[in-house]
Design brief:
By secondary structure, the protein is an all-beta fold. The protein has a domain at 11-92: Thrombin, subunit H (Beta Barrel). The protein is built from no helices and six strands. The protein has a six-stranded antiparallel barrel with strand order 1-2-3-6-5-4. The termini are far apart. The relative contact order is 0.16.
């Protein structure tokens, strides 16, 4: 790698989950989306794909997108979408009217720091 950016489309680094179905298969696979642009994505997961495989990716707030596998390296792979999407939509939170599963989304508080201790509970050393 030369460190020179050669892509003509900007991409967002993020962490999303997506459902992927390989063409001619009924089985879906959950993968992590590491990078997303209007023209494609980088996925990561326990999914056996090869360059050229046709698939459908189900992304939050966007829906089903058809594409093909552009590259594979270890458990990561690139997907080139058939049609461009608005990749910023995937970053937006789900709205109440986004479908029946929208009510299943629960806000996570795991990333918040704990409350500071009460001064009366501290002791001097």
């Amino acid at each position: 790698m030369t460190g020179v950016e050669t892509r003509s489309v900007t991409r967002d680094s993020l962490f999303l989950l997506a459902e992927i179905r390989i063409e001619q298969s009924t089985e879906t696979h959950r993968v992590r989306v590491r990078n997303l642009s209007d023209g494609g994505m980088m996925g990561e997961g326990n999914l056996r794909v090869q360059r050229g495989h046709r698939l459908t990716v189900e992304l939050r707030n966007i829906g089903a997108i058809k594409g093909s596998v552009a590259w594979v390296q270890d458990d990561r792979f690139g997907v080139a979408f058939d049609d461009e999407i608005d990749s910023q939509k995937a970053r937006r939170p789900l709205e109440a009217n986004d479908g029946p599963t929208a009510s299943l989304v629960v806000s996570s508080r795991a990333h918040r720091a704990p409350a500071p201790p009460q001064p009366s509970m501290l002791r001097k050393i």
